[in-house]
Amino acid sequence: MKNKFNKVVLSTLLITSSAMADYSFNVESLIGVEGGYSSLDVERSDDVENTNSLTKYKLPHAGLKIGAQTENYRVFLHVNYYSDDDFDYATTYGVSLQYLVNVSKYWNVFLGVNGGIMNLRYSAPHENKSRTLSDSYYGGDLGVNIHLGDSFDLELGGRYMAIDASNTIDDVTYTFDNMISGYGSIIYRFKMD
Protein backbone atom coordinates (compact mmCIF):
# COMPACT_ATOMS: atom_id res chain seq x y z
CA MET A 1 0.00 0.00 0.00
CA LYS A 2 2.77 2.42 0.93
CA ASN A 3 4.55 1.66 -2.35
CA LYS A 4 1.39 2.57 -4.32
CA PHE A 5 1.08 5.83 -2.41
CA ASN A 6 4.78 6.64 -2.88
CA LYS A 7 4.43 6.04 -6.63
CA VAL A 8 1.41 8.38 -6.80
CA VAL A 9 3.25 11.11 -4.88
CA LEU A 10 6.45 10.73 -6.93
CA SER A 11 4.54 10.76 -10.24
CA THR A 12 2.58 13.84 -9.18
CA LEU A 13 5.72 15.67 -8.10
CA LEU A 14 7.44 14.86 -11.41
CA ILE A 15 4.45 16.02 -13.44
CA THR A 16 3.96 19.19 -11.42
CA SER A 17 7.65 20.09 -11.39
CA SER A 18 7.79 19.97 -15.19
CA ALA A 19 4.47 21.83 -15.46
CA MET A 20 5.65 24.49 -13.02
CA ALA A 21 9.11 24.95 -14.58
CA ASP A 22 7.87 27.75 -16.83
CA TYR A 23 6.20 29.49 -13.88
CA SER A 24 8.96 29.14 -11.27
CA PHE A 25 9.13 32.93 -10.88
CA ASN A 26 5.50 33.09 -9.70
CA VAL A 27 5.01 30.14 -7.33
CA GLU A 28 3.01 30.57 -4.12
CA SER A 29 3.04 28.22 -1.14
CA LEU A 30 -0.32 27.11 0.27
CA ILE A 31 -1.52 26.07 3.72
CA GLY A 32 -5.17 25.22 4.27
CA VAL A 33 -7.71 23.87 6.72
CA GLU A 34 -10.72 21.97 5.45
CA GLY A 35 -14.09 20.94 6.81
CA GLY A 36 -16.84 19.05 5.06
CA TYR A 37 -19.30 16.25 4.81
CA SER A 38 -18.77 12.90 3.06
CA SER A 39 -20.86 9.95 1.97
CA LEU A 40 -19.26 6.47 2.05
CA ASP A 41 -20.87 3.35 0.57
CA VAL A 42 -20.35 0.17 2.64
CA GLU A 43 -21.68 -3.10 1.20
CA ARG A 44 -22.15 -6.22 3.37
CA SER A 45 -22.12 -9.66 1.71
CA ASP A 46 -22.81 -12.87 3.63
CA ASP A 47 -21.72 -15.97 1.72
CA VAL A 48 -23.45 -18.36 4.14
CA GLU A 49 -26.85 -16.65 4.11
CA ASN A 50 -26.37 -15.44 0.52
CA THR A 51 -27.46 -11.87 1.35
CA ASN A 52 -26.25 -8.40 0.36
CA SER A 53 -26.99 -5.00 1.88
CA LEU A 54 -25.73 -1.47 1.32
CA THR A 55 -25.29 1.23 3.96
CA LYS A 56 -24.50 4.86 3.13
CA TYR A 57 -22.59 6.53 5.93
CA LYS A 58 -22.67 10.31 6.34
CA LEU A 59 -19.29 11.32 7.73
CA PRO A 60 -18.28 14.84 8.78
CA HIS A 61 -14.59 15.44 8.19
CA ALA A 62 -11.79 17.90 8.95
CA GLY A 63 -8.35 18.16 7.44
CA LEU A 64 -5.12 19.99 6.73
CA LYS A 65 -3.36 20.52 3.41
CA ILE A 66 -0.13 22.04 2.16
CA GLY A 67 0.85 22.76 -1.40
CA ALA A 68 2.11 25.06 -4.11
CA GLN A 69 0.43 27.04 -6.87
CA THR A 70 1.33 28.74 -10.12
CA GLU A 71 -0.97 30.77 -12.32
CA ASN A 72 -2.62 27.67 -13.82
CA TYR A 73 -1.69 24.68 -11.63
CA ARG A 74 -1.61 23.68 -8.01
CA VAL A 75 -0.69 20.58 -6.03
CA PHE A 76 -1.73 19.64 -2.48
CA LEU A 77 -0.67 17.02 0.05
CA HIS A 78 -3.58 16.53 2.42
CA VAL A 79 -4.77 14.53 5.41
CA ASN A 80 -8.43 14.20 6.45
CA TYR A 81 -10.07 12.67 9.51
CA TYR A 82 -13.66 11.33 9.24
CA SER A 83 -15.98 10.85 12.23
CA ASP A 84 -18.78 8.33 12.91
CA ASP A 85 -19.77 6.07 15.83
CA ASP A 86 -19.29 2.89 13.74
CA PHE A 87 -15.69 3.85 12.87
CA ASP A 88 -12.96 3.75 15.53
CA TYR A 89 -10.97 5.84 13.06
CA ALA A 90 -11.08 6.73 9.37
CA THR A 91 -8.36 8.82 7.73
CA THR A 92 -7.10 9.59 4.25
CA TYR A 93 -3.61 10.70 3.22
CA GLY A 94 -3.41 11.93 -0.34
CA VAL A 95 -2.22 14.19 -3.09
CA SER A 96 -4.23 16.33 -5.53
CA LEU A 97 -3.10 17.88 -8.80
CA GLN A 98 -5.43 20.59 -10.08
CA TYR A 99 -5.74 22.80 -13.14
CA LEU A 100 -6.96 26.35 -12.47
CA VAL A 101 -9.24 28.25 -14.85
CA ASN A 102 -8.88 31.94 -13.97
CA VAL A 103 -12.37 33.31 -14.60
CA SER A 104 -11.66 36.75 -13.11
CA LYS A 105 -9.31 38.39 -10.64
CA TYR A 106 -11.82 37.56 -7.87
CA TRP A 107 -12.21 33.82 -8.38
CA ASN A 108 -11.15 30.74 -10.34
CA VAL A 109 -12.43 27.24 -11.04
CA PHE A 110 -10.35 24.12 -10.45
CA LEU A 111 -10.51 20.63 -11.93
CA GLY A 112 -8.15 17.90 -10.82
CA VAL A 113 -7.23 14.34 -9.91
CA ASN A 114 -6.46 12.86 -6.52
CA GLY A 115 -5.01 9.68 -5.08
CA GLY A 116 -3.80 8.31 -1.79
CA ILE A 117 -4.37 5.86 1.06
CA MET A 118 -7.43 5.34 3.26
CA ASN A 119 -6.97 3.77 6.71
CA LEU A 120 -9.93 2.77 8.84
CA ARG A 121 -11.16 0.53 11.62
CA TYR A 122 -14.84 -0.32 11.34
CA SER A 123 -17.08 -1.85 14.02
CA ALA A 124 -20.08 -3.19 12.13
CA PRO A 125 -23.48 -3.03 13.84
CA HIS A 126 -24.41 -6.34 15.52
CA GLU A 127 -20.81 -7.64 15.38
CA ASN A 128 -18.39 -7.90 18.28
CA LYS A 129 -15.24 -7.52 16.17
CA SER A 130 -13.51 -4.68 14.38
CA ARG A 131 -12.40 -4.70 10.76
CA THR A 132 -9.35 -2.76 9.65
CA LEU A 133 -8.06 -1.87 6.23
CA SER A 134 -5.47 0.28 4.55
CA ASP A 135 -6.01 0.63 0.81
CA SER A 136 -5.40 3.04 -2.03
CA TYR A 137 -7.95 5.32 -3.66
CA TYR A 138 -8.11 7.57 -6.72
CA GLY A 139 -10.60 10.12 -7.97
CA GLY A 140 -11.31 13.68 -9.03
CA ASP A 141 -11.79 17.20 -7.64
CA LEU A 142 -13.97 20.07 -8.82
CA GLY A 143 -14.73 23.46 -7.29
CA VAL A 144 -14.15 27.20 -7.05
CA ASN A 145 -11.70 29.48 -5.22
CA ILE A 146 -12.94 32.87 -4.12
CA HIS A 147 -10.09 35.30 -3.44
CA LEU A 148 -10.67 37.01 -0.10
CA GLY A 149 -7.69 39.31 -0.59
CA ASP A 150 -4.03 39.02 -1.50
CA SER A 151 -3.32 36.17 0.92
CA PHE A 152 -6.51 34.15 1.55
CA ASP A 153 -8.86 32.04 -0.57
CA LEU A 154 -12.20 30.46 0.28
CA GLU A 155 -12.33 27.13 -1.55
CA LEU A 156 -15.68 25.37 -2.10
CA GLY A 157 -15.31 21.98 -3.71
CA GLY A 158 -16.34 18.42 -4.27
CA ARG A 159 -14.17 15.31 -4.20
CA TYR A 160 -14.83 11.81 -5.54
CA MET A 161 -12.74 8.86 -4.31
CA ALA A 162 -12.98 5.29 -5.65
CA ILE A 163 -11.75 3.00 -2.87
CA ASP A 164 -13.04 -0.54 -3.57
CA ALA A 165 -11.43 -2.15 -0.49
CA SER A 166 -12.76 -5.31 1.19
CA ASN A 167 -12.46 -7.07 4.53
CA THR A 168 -13.68 -10.66 5.05
CA ILE A 169 -14.13 -12.39 8.41
CA ASP A 170 -16.15 -15.61 8.91
CA ASP A 171 -17.62 -15.57 5.36
CA VAL A 172 -18.93 -12.00 5.82
CA THR A 173 -17.37 -9.38 3.54
CA TYR A 174 -17.58 -5.63 3.95
CA THR A 175 -16.64 -3.62 0.85
CA PHE A 176 -15.86 0.07 1.24
CA ASP A 177 -16.62 1.55 -2.14
CA ASN A 178 -17.13 5.15 -3.31
CA MET A 179 -16.73 8.25 -1.16
CA ILE A 180 -18.15 11.60 -2.27
CA SER A 181 -17.27 14.74 -0.29
CA GLY A 182 -18.43 18.33 -0.27
CA TYR A 183 -16.08 20.68 1.57
CA GLY A 184 -14.96 24.20 2.27
CA SER A 185 -11.40 25.35 2.92
CA ILE A 186 -9.63 28.50 4.00
CA ILE A 187 -6.29 28.64 2.18
CA TYR A 188 -3.43 30.94 3.09
CA ARG A 189 -1.23 31.87 0.10
CA PHE A 190 2.30 33.19 0.57
CA LYS A 191 5.65 33.42 -1.19
CA MET A 192 8.71 31.77 0.30
CA ASP A 193 12.01 33.60 -0.14
Could you describe the 3D structure shown?
This protein is mainly beta. It has one domain (2-20, 28-190): Porin. The protein is built from 1 helix and 8 strands. The chain has an 8-stranded antiparallel barrel with strand order 1-2-3-4-5-6-7-8. Strand 4 (87-102) and strand 5 form a beta hairpin. It is elongated. The model is unreliable at 20-24 (pLDDT under 50).
CATH class categorisation: Mainly Beta
Total helical elements? 1
| Number of beta-strand segments | 8
Task: Indicate the CATH architecture.
Answer: Beta Barrel
Q: Average pLDDT across residues? A: 88
Structural class: mainly beta
Strand order of the largest sheet: 1-2-3-4-5-6-7-8
Number of domains: 1
Q: Separation of termini?
A: 36 Å
Note the beta-strand portion.
over 45%
The SSE string, one letter per element, is HEEEEEEEE
CATH fold-level label: Porin
Main beta-sheet strand count, sense and barrel state: 8 strands, antiparallel, barrel
Low-confidence parts lasting 5 or more residues at pLDDT below 50? Answer: 20-24
Task: Tell me roughly what share of residues is in helical segments.
Answer: under 10%
Distinctive features:
single chain; mainly beta; Porin; 1 helix; elongated
